[in-house]
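Retro notes (design track)

What went well: tokenization of the new backbones is finally stable.
What didn't: we kept losing track of which sequence belonged to which structure.
Fix going forward: every design gets posted as structure first, then sequence, in one message. First example under the new rule, 201 residues:
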């Protein structure tokens, strides 16, 4: 809001520039209001969803909020249809690409194949692991509602992934490479929690 208020104070000499700025600010306001409305609708609908226990449990992880958890479960549905987390990683396009010529094999960036919505959410969430390992104030309230098993997985994920992020950064890896690696590991923890909290039928 402070940034938006600052934008509102900007003044231009030419009227056309001022009109363009106001139109863009209005577009941002409209988009923000729409996002807020849709988020509230999702909050209301999730408790009646059969996958709501998994959605609630996934939010115990750092970098996973309501929309990320809903996106993951809506797009993946039953995680048990993937034999291993690595199979799901490939489905999400998070595995490295491979180039083979004769006896030479080299690896490139992630394939970006498969489900882009979940991949984008995982990449967004992975950026949070650059920070020190400790649950935030909001996350503590969510953790209190979870089983000890889910709490343990969430803390294991946070401590392991923050350490891995730091280690990869110290080795001089690009931030994008580090984030993709963290997103892969994050998916494995999400898969584990979803398997444990999904309805059995």
């Amino acid at each position: 809001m402070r940034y938006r208020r600052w934008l509102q104070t900007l003044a231009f000499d030419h009227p056309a520039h001022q009109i363009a700025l106001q139109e863009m600010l209005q577009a941002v306001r409209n988009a923000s209001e729409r996002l807020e409305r849709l988020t509230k609708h999702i909050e209301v609908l999730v408790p009646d969803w059969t996958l709501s226990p998994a959605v609630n449990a996934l939010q115990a992880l750092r970098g996973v909020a309501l929309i990320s958890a809903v996106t993951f479960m809506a797009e993946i549905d039953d995680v048990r249809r993937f034999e291993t987390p690595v199979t799901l990683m490939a489905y999400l396009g998070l595995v490295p690409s491979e180039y083979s010529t004769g006896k030479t094999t080299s690896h490139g960036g992630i394939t970006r194949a498969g489900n882009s919505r979940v991949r984008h959410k995982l990449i967004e969430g992975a950026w949070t692991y650059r920070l020190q390992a400790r649950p935030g104030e909001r996350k503590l309230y969510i953790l209190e509602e979870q089983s000890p098993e889910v709490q343990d997985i969430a803390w294991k994920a946070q401590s392991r992934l923050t350490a891995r992020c730091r280690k990869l950064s110290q080795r001089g890896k690009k931030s994008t490479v580090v984030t993709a690696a963290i997103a892969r590991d994050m998916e494995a923890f999400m898969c584990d929690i979803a398997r444990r909290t999904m309805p059995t039928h």
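Added context from the reviewer: The beta strands are 96-101, 104-110.
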